[in-house]
């Protein structure tokens, strides 16, 4: 398989595809949590059970919180999300190391609350998004797993 040169900065299209896959993961987590909520309600009050209808504020707030936690945890632990694994990407510091937790949460919050910042990667010569420039991170092509990615 012909992959992009290792450790070259990733472009807008690849990063957008990875982000779309990650949106799918966040939606799957939300669905799983909703189904769990429904089962708990059914378990504890089967006679008075009604399918819950979450409000717009709760749904939006939950989606934002789940997305930030998912992105931050992925960045801090392996530098990869499900979308980044599928697209052969890793987010690192310029030194090549993974994020620390505070930086990972800051970047995740910026990505979720200001997704349009990704578009800057299309015009930046180094393919950096607004978030990358602000927090000094790099999204690179990296198809090889590291020891931290492997189980056990």
Automatic annotation (TrEMBL):
Record key words, sorted: Cell membrane, Membrane, Transmembrane, Transmembrane helix
Record's keyword annotation contains Cell membrane: yes
Ranges annotated as spanning the membrane: 20-44, 56-77, 104-123
Superkingdom per UniProt: Bacteria
Domain annotation RDD: ranges: 10-135
Places the protein is found: Cell membrane
InterPro entries: Pra-immunoreactive, RDD
Topology of this chain in the membrane: Multi-pass membrane protein
Pfam families to which the protein is assigned, alphabetical: RDD
Gene Ontology cellular component terms for the protein in this record: plasma membrane
Protein's UniProt keywords contain Repeat: no
Primary location group: membrane
The protein's name: Putative RDD family membrane protein YckC
Native organism: Hoyosella altamirensis
């Amino acid at each position: 398989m012909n992959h992009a040169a290792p450790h070259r900065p990733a472009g807008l299209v690849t990063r957008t595809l990875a982000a779309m896959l990650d949106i799918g993961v966040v939606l799957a987590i939300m669905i799983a949590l909703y189904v769990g909520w429904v089962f708990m309600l059914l378990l504890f009050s089967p006679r008075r059970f009604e399918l819950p209808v979450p409000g717009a504020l709760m749904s939006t707030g939950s989606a934002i919180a789940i997305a930030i936690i998912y992105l931050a945890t992925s960045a801090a632990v392996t530098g990869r999300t499900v979308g980044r694994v599928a697209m052969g990407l890793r987010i690192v510091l310029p030194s090549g190391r993974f994020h620390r937790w505070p930086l990972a949460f800051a970047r995740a919050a910026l990505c979720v609350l200001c997704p349009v910042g990704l578009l800057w990667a299309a015009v930046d010569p180094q393919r950096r998004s607004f978030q990358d420039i602000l927090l000094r991170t790099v999204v690179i092509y990296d198809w090889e797993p590291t020891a931290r990615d492997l189980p056990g």
